[in-house]
Amino acid sequence: MHDRSVSWPPADRRRHRAAGYWDGLPLDRILDDAARRFPDRTALVAGDRRWTYRQLVAEVETTAGRLRARGLGAGDRVVVQLPNIAAFPLVCFALLRLGALPVLALPAQREAEIVPVAARGAAVAYVTAERHQGYDYADLAATVRREVPSIREVMLLPADGQVAAAAHTATHPGIGAGAAAAPGTDDPDRGAGPAAAGDAADPPVALFLLSGGTTGIPKLIPRTHDDYRYNARTCAQLCGFDESTVYLAALPVAHNFALACPGILGTFAVGGTVVLAVTPSPDEIFPLIERERVTVTAVVPALARLWAATAALFTDDRSSLRLVQVGGARLDATTARQLAANLDVTVQQVFGMAEGLICLTRPDDPVEVTHETQGRPISPGDEVRIVDAGGSDVVDGEVGELLTRGPYTIRGYHEAPEANARAFTPAGFYRSGDLVRRTAQGNLVIEGRIAEVVNRAGEKISVGEVEEHLLAHPDIRDVAVLGLADPLLGERSCAVVVARGQGLDRVELSRFLLGRGLARFKVPDQVEVVTQLPRTAIGKTDRAALSAHLLAT
Ligand code: AMP
Question: What angle do CA 355, 360, 364 make, to 5 degrees?
């Protein structure tokens, strides 16, 4: 079972219910409600296949029956590692139907993450794709089966997302068409548990997300039916989603951003259409936008830069696209402007974390806000504190660490007492590790992470600030600034740049940064030009890999 000691205290649960944040309904009710209201609207497009809401619910039921026939049921934890194919929503909703709990891994994660995650979650099954982007998951699946004692079932699904066609044998055991299709549990009152069980009852966990970060083993983030429904529905409302929304999932849907901010869950919640893109590459994305008349999508900054730089090369009609959400890592104002201009869209910044808190700029905010801040919390129930190193609140405009608590922010990771003691204050605030400041209008600006400060002979350099300036250089396509151990300075700063042209060296960067009024100590001590930056599974700069590489060379 989930560690109950990390749930909300009874008084908070009562408050979140009384305020209407938590409605006591199961997460998968999102799909059933849309199917009742819009049975014949297109719910899902994946490759050449399309599903109306009625068809999607029917296929979820079939899938649930097959999973049940494979021995899965209430309370079972199942590691789901699927790319953006139809099998993702089908399997996840089917597991929710059964009361089983998906543990959502990203397609790019490998043995070093999947094995300990499956073990920590005491997962009984591992569901993945046979192949994705040239990677064959069979060996990984075999390793998971061998190394994780709790695993009973390993299922490799064909990458076209047609779960029903996966009639594999013991070596490639898909959710076979041969398995008996037991009826689904479509009891509309099912899961009304929390409210029915009393206002102070513990909200049941629906699924586990994995914590981000570039080092260490991901932690399991328990998201409850109540809080995750609220997360998805509130984001959808604030982003103006409705049944005419066509959401293109370009980022991995196993990540919180494309899953529930508003992502595919928020789109389903309002009866819109979800279009799954297998890759975020412009040559897949731009034609899909034209073909499906996509209205909104979400990217990380590195993709925003790529799309903005390549948009002119594609002649596809993008006139349907109105909103591009950018989040997951800091977006610089230059890229924001270029994205808005080159794609002719409104840019929305999204700052958030799988642990909970989501901040958004609102689509109708002025451009200074949408291009230069990361927005404000989605819920009046969100509590945000910005504190100095001693834990005291700073005044508006000052930078400090963001601490947060609220109706959809977890109170602890699953079975991780030591990490919980570090990551949560005694009062239950999540210590984000993000350095932020609040503007006079109440928007947050992310200045970096606590560890992302170069301590150069005692002078602190925020890497985010220097990166932001460098990205304004016309010949810099991408950049990461990091601190490297130095015998004289303690740490020296190093800018790793992806250049558009030749001639980017320290002299040029120094000229450029000093010309922008930056203090001399912030000019990078070292400049390395590379062809690309290493990325994490979701597409953020992998700083740990970069430092390791620089230290090794
Ligand atoms: P994840 O849980 O994978 O969504 O990662 C959450 C972390 O990503 C946050 O704590 C931030 O450090 C970072 N992050 C997310 N969105 C933004 C953003 N818009 N700007 C800067 N950092 C961000």
Answer: 165
